[in-house]
Amino acid sequence: MTDPGQLAALRERLTGRRFGLLFVNAAIDRGDLPIGEVPTRMFTEVMITNALSPMRVLESLRGLVVPGGTVAVMSSEQGSVSRNDEPGYELYKAGKAALNQLMRSYATRHGDDGHTKLLLDPGHNRTRLGGPGAPLVPEESVPAVVDVLEAQAGVPGLRFLGRHGETVPW
């Protein structure tokens, strides 16, 4: 995800292929440090992985998406600026907020391509990232995300949606 050379090689391998859906999922978390204590290297790693790299993937592979197809990125409600009312995980939240902003810029730049553009929040899942105490399991949330992808297919423009299709505030 973070290696431009590997992304270029993937793009080359996919030459001639066409997709109805391009869905990018990338996220890391490096702990719950107040932003003033986050080392620069850690900040850079999270921002490159959670924001820059998913957008590079979209830019590199968007030409493989059929007219009327969907480009989607896994985001998080944690990236909602207006809902940031609980302390903690500042770097992760900032990375997802940056991703959302970059996706907004992408949608503006490619507004006339007819693609459905989505940012999706799957909810807090029991994964290595979400931790063992998370209330959801991927076996339940992933099918819900797929349902949203299918329901939104063919609707141009950008939306930030939760796993049940509800709008997540920016």
Which helices and strands, and how do they pair?
Elements: H1 4-13, E1 19-24, H2 40-61, E2 65-74, H3 90-109, E3 116-121, H4 138-152, E4 157-162
Parallel strand pairs: 1-2, 2-3, 3-4
Textual characterization of the structure:
The chain has a four-stranded parallel beta sheet, sandwiched between helices. The mean pLDDT is 94. By secondary structure, the protein is an alpha/beta fold. The radius of gyration is 16 Å and the shape is globular. Helices cover 39% and strands 16% of the residues. It has helices spanning 4-13, 40-61, 90-109, 138-152; strands at 19-24, 65-74, 116-121, 157-162. It has a single domain, classed as NAD(P)-binding Rossmann-like Domain (Rossmann fold, 3-Layer(aba) Sandwich), CATH 3.40.50. α2 links the parallel β1 (19-24) and β2 (65-74).
Number of folding domains? 1
Order of helices and strands: HEHEHEHE
The name of the CATH architecture is: 3-Layer(aba) Sandwich
Q: Say which CATH homologous superfamily is assigned.
A: NAD(P)-binding Rossmann-like Domain
Average pLDDT over all residues: 94
Q: What radius of gyration results from the CA coordinates?
A: 16 Å
Q: With helices defined by DSSP (H or I, 4 residues minimum), what is the helix count? A: 4
Major sheet attributes: 4 strands, parallel
N/C terminus separation:
25 Å
- Helical content, roughly? 25-40%
Tell me, briefly, the overall form: globular
Q: Tell how many strands the DSSP assignment holds.
A: 4
Classify the beta-strand content into a percent band: 15-25%
Spans of at least 5 consecutive residues whose pLDDT stays below 50 are none
Strand order of the largest sheet: 1-2-3-4
